[in-house]
Design brief:
The structure is a single chain. This protein has 136 residues and is of the alpha+beta class. The chain has two helices and four strands; from the N terminus they run αββββα. It has helices at 2-29, 102-123; strands spanning 32-47, 50-61, 64-69, 84-90. Strands 3-2-1-4 form a four-stranded antiparallel beta sheet. It is elongated and about 55 Å long. The relative contact order is 0.19.
C-alpha cells in the first residue's frame, strides 16, 4: 500500500513540475522583453477560502493592446487601480507577460524537486518508514 502512495505522490510531483514548466519554457528559452503596464482592474475569484483578487494589467506592444491577469492572487485588490508596473514577456509572446518573481518560482521548483527526491529516497528504502522503525 505504501508503495502505491509513494509512486503516486512522485507522479503527482512530476506532473506539477511539467504543468508549471510548460508555461515557463518559452520564458526560459527566449529573449525577454520588458513593458510598462497599468493595473486596469482585478479578477475576482471566490472559493472555500474566501475572495481572492488578481490584478489585470493592460499594455501596448507590437502594435496591439494586450491584457493579462496576474498569476498571484491576493486577499485584497492589490496593487491599486492605475498603478504602473514593469512586466516581462518572451519575445513574440506578450500573452505570457507577467510580473517577474524569480525567487518565488525558484522556491516552487525547489519544493517540488525536493519533495520528489524525498519520496524517491523513501521508495528506494534510503529513508526510514517512520519514527517507530528507528532504534530507541
Amino acid at each position: 500500500m505504501e508503495t502505491y502512495f509513494l509512486y503516486g505522490s512522485m507522479a503527482l510531483c512530476l506532473f506539477g513540475l511539467w504543468a508549471i514548466a510548460r508555461r515557463d519554457w518559452a520564458r526560459m528559452t527566449s529573449i525577454s522583453r520588458q513593458v510598462d503596464a497599468e493595473v486596469i482592474g482585478h479578477r475576482v475569484t471566490q472559493d472555500n477560502d474566501g475572495t481572492s483578487y488578481g490584478a489585470i494589467y493592460r499594455f501596448s506592444v507590437e502594435g496591439a493592446s494586450h491584457e493579462v491577469t496576474d498569476e498571484v492572487l491576493y486577499s485584497k485588490p492589490a496593487p491599486p487601480l492605475g498603478t504602473r508596473l514593469t512586466l516581462s514577456y518572451p519575445f513574440g509572446r506578450p500573452d505570457l507577460a507577467h510580473v517577474p518573481r524569480p525567487l518565488m518560482w525558484l522556491a516552487v521548483y525547489a519544493t517540488l524537486l525536493g519533495l520528489f527526491a524525498m519520496l524517491l529516497a523513501r521508495a528506494m528504502d534510503w529513508l526510514p518508514a517512520s519514527g517507530g522503525d528507528m532504534p530507541g
